[in-house]
Amino acid sequence: MSILILTACIAFLILQIAWFKINPFIAFIITALLAGLTLGLPIDTLSQTVQKGLGEMLGSITLIIVFGTCIGKLTVSSGAANVIAKTVMGWTGKKYVRLGLMITGFIVGIPLFYSVGFVLLVPLIFSVAHQFKLSKVYLGIPMLASLSVAHGFLPPHPSPMALSSILNADIGLVLVYGIIIAIPTIFIAGLLFSNLLKNIKTQSNQEILNVEEIANEGKLPSFSVSIFSALFPVFGLTLTSLLPFLTNNETALNIGKTLGEPSIIMLISLLICTYTLGTRMNRSLKSVMDDYATAIKDVALIVLIVGGAGSLKEVMIVSGVNNTIVDLLTQTSIHPYILAWMMAAIIRICVGSATAAGLMTASVLLPLLQANNLDPNLLVLAVGAGSLMCSHVNDPSFWMFKEYFNISLKDTFKSWTVMESLVSVLGIIFVFILNSIIH
């Protein structure tokens, strides 16, 4: 009975977001309260349970997401993202132009939110298409596949960060495994798949301008400084995760463990970027702080949505429904990774939000970790892959792609929706391949 109640609550959550267009944060809180009441939690403790779940979730990831957002904002406003894009494109030239766009999308996509990366890089796609007289969709899909994979698989993006927190995964290993899986995924779903899209013609429209303001256009950082600054969180998290394999020195391991805390790494990265991309480029500290204030405003709602998912998770734990789920799921013959991927994919198709789909799925599947002795790092990636499945008309990114590239609805499904579905399917396949290698 408790599973039926939970299923009805999740369906109600999907209905609120998809049909009634209720803000996802509010929808999560309403659903958490409703689930608590119907699952028999004492009414006098229900509010405290919801608040505890929200607080614990926000306490574990807020600093990381906020610092990551600030780094991404400064990467754009300092011109570092443009420097990276132009340098990589200069290396690859016309012959390997799509490979250059794909690499650029992956590098820039790690520190930037998907929508920011999209708006920043689409003008580059249009410029290259005009220069080489090639199809915009043909050129754009490899780059946008890279952005999508980074958004779904790699910390410090909100969904992988929240999933890592819920499932008690190691963020550094999630990042390392995510990069390993991402490379062949974007090569197939981006570079190879785009060969089938050469004949998609975009209708004539005015060129999209880069709407992101570059605050210090007169003095841009070098490519090496731009790469170092934008990707320092990746370097730091990777190094501290691999440190136990490199040394047995207890002092070094303790220092690495402390510095390897994601919030510490992100703070160090932010301070480095404030200097290398800010004050070193003759920008005032106040100007850099104004950028950070804008970035924090932009990410506030996403952080609250993640907190709302934490409330629902706490209600499930306190009510004991998670144990019931374990008993049921352990009797099925479906592999837990496939189950996680399928659940995330179904919710994504219904809701349209990759982040919401991942959070809902992780909250339900948390008990599977203890029951099946699974690798939580790979489970994060399985859920992340499912959350990217079949982007269609209820996903804002679908319409961004259609309107920016000015193509028909049919061609949007043929290109964008198929690419996102390929990313999802390939993601879960490579999760299994990596699982067989590691374990």
Automatic annotation (TrEMBL):
Signal peptide: none annotated. It comes from the Bacteria. It is found in: Cell membrane. Its main location: membrane. The keyword RNA-binding does not apply. Pfam families: GntP_permease (PF02447). It is a multi-pass membrane protein. Belongs to the GntP permease family. This is Gluconate:H+ symporter.
